[in-house]
């Protein structure tokens, strides 16, 4: 399998031959290959039937000429065989889905269409309903005509139907998995694997995906699991070519860096980076949060970068435009910035008003009082406002009211998108001429990271409307925090591979055990995760052999003696790091971090991976402390927390070597030094301080400070470092023990027989490389051993032990009463919630209190300023924490890898008060006055809460708990109202 499809070429296949299909009229190519299961022999009867079917009249004809990839995929369908279509956004993959539906309806067969999200399901339902009348919808929120021949549903609903043995699953001839690349999503991707593995064996499949370089591997897996051929039709063809521009922060122009032919313009790229206006630390402070990564908000009265950008786009007629942002706060700020622009004509204003009041009429008089309603009404921000409201998915309460307006496409000018609304990148039909990225960093649940080239390809694909625009325009706003290599990789990198995100859950195990034909072991054996692990073995063997040959070719004189010396050095560096961690911890460091303090920092850490083997510190630089500040944490009680127990960021003015324009040069930079684990660390604190100027913004001021640093070092070569014991008051026994061990090691170095050997440094570097190769070989061999065994085998055993210990299943794999409840809970942590039910916690409290407690299961955002809930709610939350801790400890005892306190802290009380008030009947605008939560975030949480309650109703029903069932139904009736549950305009 080729790693990339940058240049179309036939796919490499061990059991099929790749074919390139070329359109004679246009330079449009596609690759067609097929995967067969091992030992597959097509039967003559099926081949004849397929040929007869192919000769028949097409199931659907289209009023336009099909692209080669569409024609090839449709041929596969006519032949009655599964196909994976991998193509760019807006290439026309839906044509293949439409044909599959038409073919199924013609043949009086049932067809299932699944999508990742409810919004996309709603949109597709409306599209298909207009095309074919016999269409139904099932999303959990809404069920319309569940007996229709074509059923549109979310993938989770399809999985649930399979687990419950629904009659519908036995009648399905074709299953369409739209946006199947979503299978790599770390939280929900496993749903696709379960659904595909468990799919009816007589079904055929249509997989629609964004471009993935390992489409063939995916098709090989499907062919193996379902013992049927699976075709791959891949195209890199983009109906509307794209141009990629960079807009440097603080600049005023665009730089074309990738043209419509895909050529990277190196000179233009470096001109863009050289035009960057670095953000001064003083300015950053004054803005107090108004400066965001990727754009400069500007001072009061000044135009921000984004404002200038949109004005330029309108002037150049590059609209409509989608603006991607990965911060809800930034989305709201940008929307306010745009309010000064009037982007619509008089006739458009009339249309907007009609749509606006149609939406407003759905709201109660109280909901119309929400600030967002009056803001958008007064500002006349064009239909742009509706599209912003539509896709922010968390910034305003209108998100769900104005769920989708397909007619807004022609009028829309600008869309800001938040992390919770990455619906653009998964298929919602909302193309534009231009796409803008205000920044390219996002929070993925664990940490902030740059978006991958694959994510960039997916989202930028929204640019360029087929048949309307000659080209699409992508604009990347870049600031000085982004390395050139990162920007280049993003713009010119390849699509992300489709890798398994399979993981075990208790809900999955219990449903597999309960299911008549289910088997957790069989699911694991047939998972894409296991397939990829097995598939990797030949490559791993080859890698190990190459590395072993390289390692064995390294011959080192006196290797044993050198190893001994090397190990001493490793110990020394480890001890030095331990000493630094004590000396420069907040406990001892804080009193000496005043602005103006001279400090020495290490640019390259001397850790185990460093090729430096001197006992002295190398690659260091001196600078001046500007300020330090506490790193704000998540919800926690800080009242009794000591200052030294917190993490801090220290900002230091220094002269760093940076790579810019392809060459290294020194530049002034204020470097943030964060808690241990960052690449820059403080190694010395000077006893001297420099007077600090009031304003550090002028370059000359910073230059003068660095000049003073140089003059100080010229007079005091040592830097006058503070003595840890005499000056900093460090008296801990652990510190003294470390110092004694370091002194003992230092005496050994001089006595060591090899220390005087010539070229000792070079020999140590060779030995280090050899050691690293040995470690890599061991790692590869471990990977090979785990691949040959059943993936997750040990974890499966451990999780089964947990289920037995807690009474969810017997040793004979019979699901108990608790297990039946947990089987129904897939939208919350099933074990803790089930334990609360059986402990009587939910039965003994009022409905409003119960709903408030359940909110802790659906709220995942981290609020810094969340207030504590009232006493009775806090008591309930404490019971939840105690239950979660007990569940986590049982898992730990059963050898399930889990961070007990991390698990307990994953339940958050941030919206307990707000949900309690909502369940008591408070108006939405009243709730927004008592909580710092974004409107859309709260709406999403309450809707998820209703989803959990619906699952609890089924759970109570399954065990005959009529009292609890009635209580859960009452809870639903209390929260399911008004603006939070306003109906989608698609339906």
Which helices and strands occur, and which strands form pairs?
Elements: E1 19-22, E2 29-35, H1 44-55, H2 68-78, E3 82-86, H3 94-106, E4 110-115, H4 118-131, E5 135-138, E6 143-144, E7 150-154, H5 155-163, H6 167-171, E8 172-177, H7 189-198, E9 204-209, H8 215-226, E10 230-234, E11 242-248, E12 255-258, H9 266-274, H10 281-287, H11 305-315, E13 321-324, H12 328-338, H13 346-360, H14 371-379, H15 382-392, E14 416-417, E15 434-437, E16 441-443, E17 448-450, H16 453-460, E18 472-478, H17 484-492, H18 506-514, H19 520-525, H20 528-535, H21 537-552, H22 559-583, H23 586-589, E19 597-602, E20 620-630, E21 648-660, E22 663-673, E23 681-689, H24 699-715, H25 733-751, H26 760-788, H27 793-806, H28 817-824, H29 830-838, H30 841-844, H31 847-854, H32 871-893, H33 900-905, H34 912-919, H35 924-928, H36 935-958, H37 962-975
Parallel strand pairs: 3-9, 3-10, 4-7, 4-8, 5-7, 8-9, 11-18, 13-14, 13-15, 15-18
Antiparallel strand pairs: 1-2, 2-10, 5-6, 11-12, 16-17, 19-20, 19-23, 20-21, 21-22
């Amino acid at each position: 399998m080729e790693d990339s499809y940058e240049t179309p070429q036939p796919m490499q296949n061990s059991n099929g031959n790749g074919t390139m299909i070329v359109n004679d009229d246009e330079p449009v190519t596609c690759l067609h290959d097929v995967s067969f299961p091992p030992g597959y022999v097509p039967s003559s009867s099926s081949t004849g039937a397929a040929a007869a079917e192919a000769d028949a009249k097409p199931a659907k004809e289209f009023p336009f000429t099909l692209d080669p990839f569409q024609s090839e995929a449709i041929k596969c369908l006519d032949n009655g065989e599964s196909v994976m279509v991998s193509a760019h956004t807006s290439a026309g993959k839906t044509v293949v889905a439409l044909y599959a539906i038409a073919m199924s309806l013609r043949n009086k067969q049932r067809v299932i269409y699944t999508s990742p999200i409810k919004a996309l399901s709603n949109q597709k339902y409306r599209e298909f309903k207009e095309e074919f009348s016999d269409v139904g919808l099932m999303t959990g929120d809404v069920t319309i005509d569940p007996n229709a021949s074509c059923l549109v549903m979310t993938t989770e609903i399809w999985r649930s139907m399979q687990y419950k043995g629904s009659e519908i699953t036995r009648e399905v001839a074709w299953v369409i998995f739209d946006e199947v690349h979503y299978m790599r999503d770390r939280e929900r991707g496993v749903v696709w694997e379960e659904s595909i593995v468990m799919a009816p064996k007589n079904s055929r499949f249509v997989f629609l995906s964004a471009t993935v370089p390992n489409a063939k591997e995916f098709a090989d897996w499907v062919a193996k699991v379902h013992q049927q051929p699976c075709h791959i039709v891949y195209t890199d063809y983009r109906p509307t070519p794209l141009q990629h521009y960079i807009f440097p922060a603080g600049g005023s122009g665009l730089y074309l860096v990738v043209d419509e032919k895909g050529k990277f313009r190196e000179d233009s790229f470096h001109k863009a980076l050289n035009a960057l206006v670095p953000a001064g630390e003083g300015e950053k402070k004054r803005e107090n949060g108004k400066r965001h990564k990727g754009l400069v908000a500007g001072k009061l009265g000044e135009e921000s970068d984004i404002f200038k950008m949109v004005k330029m786009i309108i002037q150049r007629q590059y609209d409509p435009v989608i603006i991607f942002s990965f911060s809800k706060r930034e989305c709201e700020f940008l929307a306010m910035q745009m309010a000064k622009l009037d982007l619509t004509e008089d006739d458009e204003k009339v249309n907007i008003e009609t749509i606006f009041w149609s939406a407003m009429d759905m709201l109660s008089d109280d909901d119309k009082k929400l600030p967002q309603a009056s803001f958008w009404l007064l500002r006349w921000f064009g239909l742009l406002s509706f599209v912003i409201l539509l896709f922010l998915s968390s910034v305003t309460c209108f998100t769900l009211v104005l769920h989708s307006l397909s007619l807004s496409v022609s009028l829309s000018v600008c869309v800001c998108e938040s992390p919770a609304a990455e619906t653009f990148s998964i298929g919602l039909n909302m193309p534009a001429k231009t796409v803008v990225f205000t920044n390219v960093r996002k929070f993925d649940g664990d940490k902030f990271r740059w978006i991958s080239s694959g994510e960039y390809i997916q989202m930028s694909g929204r640019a360029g409307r087929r048949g309307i625009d000659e080209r699409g325009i992508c604009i990347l706003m870049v600031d000085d925090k982004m390395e050139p290599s990162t920007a280049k990789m993003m713009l010119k990198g390849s699509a992300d591979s489709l890798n398994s995100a399979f993981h075990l859950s208790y809900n999955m195990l219990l449903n597999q055990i309960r299911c008549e034909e289910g088997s957790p072991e069989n699911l694991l054996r047939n998972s894409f995760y296991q397939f990829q692990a097995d598939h990797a073995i030949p490559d791993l063997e080859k890698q190990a052999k190459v590395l072993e040959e390289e390692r064995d070719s390294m011959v080192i004189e006196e290797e044993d003696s050198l190893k001994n010396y090397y190990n001493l050095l490793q110990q020394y560096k480890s001890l030095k790091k331990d000493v630094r961690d004590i000396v420069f911890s907040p406990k001892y460091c804080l009193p000496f971090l005043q602005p103006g303090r001279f400090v020495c920092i290490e640019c390259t850490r001397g850790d185990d991976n460093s090729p430096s083997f001197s006992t002295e510190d190398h690659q260091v630089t001196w600078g001046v402390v500007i300020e330090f500040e506490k790193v704000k944490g998540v919800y926690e009680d800080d009242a009794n927390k000591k200052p030294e127990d917190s993490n801090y960021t220290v900002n230091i003015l220094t002269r760093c070597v940076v790579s810019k324009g392809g060459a290294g040069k020194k530049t002034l930079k204020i470097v943030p030094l964060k808690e241990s684990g960052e690449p820059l660390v403080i190694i010395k604190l000077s006893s001297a301080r420099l007077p600090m100027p009031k304003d550090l913004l002028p370059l000359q001021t910073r230059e003068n400070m660095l000049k003073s640093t140089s003059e100080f070092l010229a007079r005091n070569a040592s830097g006058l470092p503070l003595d840890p014991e005499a000056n900093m008051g460090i008296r801990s026994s652990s510190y003294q023990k470390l110092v004694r061990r370091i002194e003992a090691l230092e005496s050994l170095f001089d006595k060591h027989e090899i220390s005087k050997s010539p070229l000792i440094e070079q020999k140590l570097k060779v030995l280090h490389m050899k050691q690293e190769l040995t470690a890599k070989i061991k790692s590869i061999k471990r990977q090979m051993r785990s691949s040959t065994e059943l993936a997750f085998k040990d974890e499966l055993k451990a999780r089964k032990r947990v289920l037995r210990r807690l009474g969810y299943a017997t040793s004979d794999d019979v699901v108990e009463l608790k297990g039946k409840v947990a089987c129904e809970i897939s939208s919350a942590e099933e074990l803790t919630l089930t334990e609360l039910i059986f402990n009587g916690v939910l039965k003994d409290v009022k409905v409003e209190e119960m709903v408030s407690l359940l909110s802790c299961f659906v709220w995942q955002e981290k609020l810094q300023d969340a207030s504590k809930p009232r006493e009775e709610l806090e008591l309930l939350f404490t019971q939840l924490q105690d239950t979660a801790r007990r569940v986590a400890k049982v898992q730990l005892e059963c050898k399930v890898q889990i961070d007990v306190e991390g698990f307990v802290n994953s339940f958050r009380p941030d919206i307990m008060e707000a949900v309690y008030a909502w369940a008591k009947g408070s108006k939405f605008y009243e709730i927004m006055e008592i909580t710092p939560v974004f409107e859309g975030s709260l709406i999403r949480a309450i809707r998820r809460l209703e989803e959990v309650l619906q699952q609890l109703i089924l759970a109570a029903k399954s065990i005959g708990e009529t009292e609890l069932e009635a209580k859960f139904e009452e809870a639903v009736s209390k929260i399911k109202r008004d603006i939070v549950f306003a109906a989608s305009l698609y339906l």
